[in-house]
Amino acid sequence: MQRGWMDKGVRNARRKATDSDKLGRNVRSEASEKQAAKARQTQRMIERLDVVEEPRKEWELRMEIAAAPRSGAVVATLRDAAVRRGDFSFGPASLQIDWADRVAITGANGAGKSTLLAALLGRLPLDEGYAALGPGVVVGEVDQARGLFYGSESLLEAFCAAVPDTEPAEVRTLLAKFGLRAAHVLRPATTLSPGERTRAALALLQGRGVNLLVLDEPTNHLDLTAIEQLESALDSYEGTLLLVTHDRRMLDAVRTTRRVEVAAGKVTEL
Ligand SMILES: Nc1ncnc2c1ncn2[C@@H]1O[C@H](COP(=O)(O)OP(=O)(O)O)[C@@H](O)[C@H]1O
Ligand SMILES: [Mg+2]
């Protein structure tokens, strides 16, 4: 905006260059000079802003260290799968998900995206066809994991209950990797911010050794901070990913390797 004003000022000064009023001309070009100095100063401030926002947070860096054991080469298979849900009919659909595939699943509301996920994960009895998960697949859902951190017990207690085979000291270390330190772990889970709850959920998925991460429209109930934290954690995640989203920005922000479109119960690979 300041640059715009400056250009205008210069143009006006030139247009009136034939003025006999030399004083006025000088005042006008001096004003443009001042405006230019202001614009330079603003530019420097904008550049500083970028510098401040750039460094990645500690927990993001640490996320890259932990990696769940991988599954077999074939993670999930649907073959000629068909499901009827009331008036809605899904399929027949065939789809194979391989290790480390990062699949974006898109489609209109009610198209059958969640039905596709449920069929793939073997959570929905099929009317026809076949569905199977591969060996060594550990499924995790961020939404489900987040749901465990809404109670009055402390974050540490809630977390330990969710991974009973893990020592509390180990749980603390895991949470710390996701930026949840002493001050967080003893707070009632219900007081966590959405961003903190998302980090706790990701820590839990990590703790459970999840290698098939399923996200069904995650931006629907997350605030912007939690979305951004999720996006950057997904960047370092190395397992297989199924991401249903209608959010353009999230599709752009998350690295995916395949794109599947669901329309009126029909599944197409794009
Ligand atoms: N449990 C259910 N019982 C009956 N119909 C259902 C059930 N779940 C979903 N449906 C119907 O199946 C269709 C597809 O739903 P869904 O797979 O959730 O779509 P999407 O996730 O793409 O929005 C919708 O028309 C919905 O009304
Ligand atoms: Mg859905």
Commentary on this structure:
With 270 residues, the protein is of the alpha/beta class. The chain folds into two domains: 2-55; 68-269, P-loop containing nucleotide triphosphate hydrolases (Rossmann fold, 3-Layer(aba) Sandwich). The chain contains eleven helices and nine strands. Strands 5-6-7-3-8-9 form a six-stranded mixed beta sheet. β1 and β2 (88-98) form a beta hairpin. α1 (2-15) runs antiparallel to α2 and α7 packs across α9. Mean pLDDT is 84; it is low at 51-56 and 61-66. The protein binds adenosine-5'-diphosphate and magnesium ion. Adenosine-5'-diphosphate is lined by residues 85-86, 88, 107, 109-115, 262.
What is shown here, in short?
With 270 residues, this protein is an alpha/beta fold. Helix content is 44%, strand content 21%.
The largest sheet has its strands arranged as 5-6-7-3-8-9
Question: Helical element count?
Answer: 11
Q: What is the molecular shape?
A: extended
The CATH top-level class label of the largest domain: Alpha Beta
- Strand coverage percent: 15-25%
